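Consider the tokenized backbone below.
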């Protein structure tokens, strides 16, 4: 479990700089340059991600059951992850309603993904992993909205034609991941 926790600290710590140390981040970018900052950020993120995957795999070998998830939990998780998969591309597609309404669709998507997986998994390693991501998503979303208000950010109104791409891309990615990749990469087939 210690490798999983170390990975979460590194990965989510790196992703939390804007939450807790925005001025420090800006000073580092000014000093290092944006390219070098992004390179360092990417290396730290990759190290954290590798440790999370490795640590989660190790922790799965000695499962600690905290609760038995309710029968309906996997169905709710499927719905929440479908929405999350739509929100991920919506974060990068300009002029869509998701961005207009949610403001920060990728962070909201991470929160939905984490919450869904948290209620569908009663193992200690899952609670640590998905609980950490859920807490991070809530904190990051709140910090991003505070920055928006402080900077007077206004999100333009979305159009239905710009909603199509995130929905189609999200649904296709969700289908590919749920029916093919999740079992291969994670070792769990969501629909048996």
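A designed sequence for it:
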């Amino acid at each position: 479990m210690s490798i999983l926790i170390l990975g979460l600290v590194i990965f989510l710590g790196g992703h939390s700089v804007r939450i807790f140390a925005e001025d420090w981040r800006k000073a580092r970018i000014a000093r290092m340059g944006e390219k070098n900052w992004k390179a360092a950020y990417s290396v730290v993120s990759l190290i954290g991600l590798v440790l999370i995957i490795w640590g989660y795999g190790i922790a799965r070998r000695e499962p600690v059951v905290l609760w038995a998830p309710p029968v309906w939990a996997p169905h709710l998780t499927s719905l929440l992850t479908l929405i999350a998969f739509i929100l991920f591309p919506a974060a990068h597609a300009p002029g869509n309603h998701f961005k207009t309404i949610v403001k920060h669709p990728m962070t909201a998507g991470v929160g939905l993904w984490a919450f869904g997986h948290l209620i569908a998994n009663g193992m200690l390693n899952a609670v640590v992993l998905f609980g950490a991501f859920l807490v991070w998503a809530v904190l990051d979303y709140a910090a991003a909205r505070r920055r928006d208000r402080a900077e007077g950010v206004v999100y333009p109104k979305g159009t239905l034609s710009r909603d199509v791409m995130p929905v189609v891309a999200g649904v296709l990615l969700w289908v590919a991941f749920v029916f093919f990749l999740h079992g291969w990469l994670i070792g769990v087939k969501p629909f048996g």
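The mean pLDDT is 94.
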